[in-house]
Amino acid sequence: MKKIIFINILILIIYGCSSTNERIAPINAYLKEVIDPNDSILIITNKINNNYTLDLWKERVSFKDANMEVVESVDENPRIFEEKYWNEINKKYRNQNNDSLWLRNSLWQQKEFKNFKVKLMTEKNFPRPYSYNQYMDKIPEIAAFSFSQAMIYKKIYAVFAISETTTGRQFINPRSFVIMKKEKGKWKLVKEITDGAYY
């Protein structure tokens, strides 16, 4: 009996670890594409609310330009966005209880970025350009990233919000999301879609 309980616990632990690895894998694949593995980076521990990604994607797909001609999609061809599948992830991943941009109780951990030289920092403690901080005038600047949870879409895509800045620029709010695609067991970057604003 004890042996059966032990085996069940072991299976749950292994499943939990593989599930966690699957959720962070697209984000780690993205980082591998955009940073040098020898560089140190900052990761904001607070996750970006998935609501930001869901709303921005829907907004950008249905966006109309100044001539009132519908822009069919901001996706690459073939078109990735489909209302039916967007509704599925909206139902699964939307945060019904919290519409704040930053999640205070859902945090990234060091072990999730074990292949990178990472320093973690909360969004609240990230330096702001309007107040003196330890990173002002420091060269070289350190790249800083924040992410939402990766949402699996149509079984082969992962969609997540991203913010990329530096310790010099210090504006950390997200302004885009990323679409990754799993091909032959590896996550590849398909497209980054911005909010269309200019900063």
Instruction: Summarize the main sheet.
Output: 7 strands, mixed
Give the total of beta strands.
9
Strand residue content? 25-35%
The shape is globular
- From the alpha carbons, calculate the radius of gyration and give it in angstroms: 19 Å
Give the low-confidence spans. 6-19, 64-73
Number of helices: 3
Mean pLDDT: 80
| SSE string, helices as H and strands as E | HEEHHEEEEEEE
Oligomerization state of this entry?
A: single chain
Given the helix and strand composition, which structural class is it? alpha+beta
In helices, the fraction of residues equals 25-40%
Give an account of the 3D structure.
The protein is α+β, with helices and mostly antiparallel strands and 199 residues long. The chain has three helices and nine strands. It has helices at residues 2-34, 50-61, 83-93, and strands at 40-44, 46-48, 102-107, 117-121, 143-147, 151-153, 157-166, 176-183, 186-194. Strands 1, 4, 5, 6, 7, 8 and 9 form a seven-stranded mixed beta sheet that branches. Strand 6 and strand 7 (157-166) form a beta hairpin. It is globular. Mean pLDDT is 80; it is low at 6-19 and 64-73.
